[in-house]
């Protein structure tokens, strides 16, 4: 099937993204993902962390694409988001070394962090874990599988690709939309709001 977005300029793609055209956003990411990921990897210097920053950059850039003024390329703008995420994560890691973390299964830690960032609250780790697992149960099978593989099984994109039989690009896309859907559930769920 012919890609109708292929001949479009980046400026036109961004204009469509601002109208919430997710396929235009996929094309924008497809054109820039290698450059963006390599830049992030050069700063994070850890493949797993770089993948996480990359995904969070995609989520954040989609959320704020309407604020993009076009004074630079999309990748330059997105990398400024990545840079801030790297700095924030580094500061959090520094603080976490000074604080004792509650005993939570290590492979669930990133999921808990994701949920806490979604609604900006502090909650006891195991209570949050229980609520977020309920969130997973409300997702489609594809979204549930990919989030569990990424957060709970701690699998890389390549490992998830092999497990699901999907291309790495499909894995990245599904993970992006699964996180978006999970975040919406978390932000609108009464149980989470009660803990703010």
Summarize it.
The protein has helices at residues 10-17, 22-44, 47-63, 74-98, 109-119, 125-137, 141-152, 157-164, 168-188, 190-193. It has 196 residues and is an all-alpha fold. It is globular.
Layout of helices and strands, plus pairs?
Layout: H1 10-17, H2 22-44, H3 47-63, H4 74-98, H5 109-119, H6 125-137, H7 141-152, H8 157-164, H9 168-188, H10 190-193
Which features characterize this protein?
about 200 residues, mainly alpha, Rna Polymerase Sigma Factor, Chain: A, Arc Repressor Mutant, subunit A, 2 domains, 10 helices, about 0% strand
| Strand element count | 0
Tell me the helix content.
Answer: over 70%
* Largest sheet: number of strands, sense, barrel closure: none
Which quaternary structure do these chains form?
single chain
What would CATH call the class of the largest domain? Mainly Alpha
User: Between the first and last Cα atoms, what is the distance in angstroms?
Assistant: 47 Å
């Amino acid at each position: 099937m012919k890609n109708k977005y292929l001949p479009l300029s980046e400026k036109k793609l961004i204009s469509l993204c601002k109208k919430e055209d997710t396929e235009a956003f996929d094309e924008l990411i497809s054109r820039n993902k290698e450059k963006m990921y390599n830049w992030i990897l050069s700063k994070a210097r850890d493949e797993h962390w770089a993948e996480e920053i990359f995904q969070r950059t995609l989520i954040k850039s989609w959320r704020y694409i309407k604020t993009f003024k076009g004074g630079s390329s999309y990748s330059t703008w997105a990398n400024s988001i990545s840079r801030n995420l790297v700095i924030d994560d580094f500061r959090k890691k520094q603080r976490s070394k000074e604080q004792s973390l509650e005993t939570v299964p290590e492979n669930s830690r990133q999921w808990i962090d994701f949920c806490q960032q979604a609604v900006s609250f502090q909650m006891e780790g195991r209570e949050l874990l229980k609520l977020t697992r309920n969130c997973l149960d409300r997702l489609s099978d594809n979204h549930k599988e990919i989030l569990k593989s990424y957060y709970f099984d701690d699998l890389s994109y390549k490992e998830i690709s092999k497990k699901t039989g999907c291309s790495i690009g499909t894995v990245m896309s599904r993970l992006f939309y699964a996180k978006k859907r999970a975040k919406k559930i978390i932000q609108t769920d009464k149980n989470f709001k009660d803990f703010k």
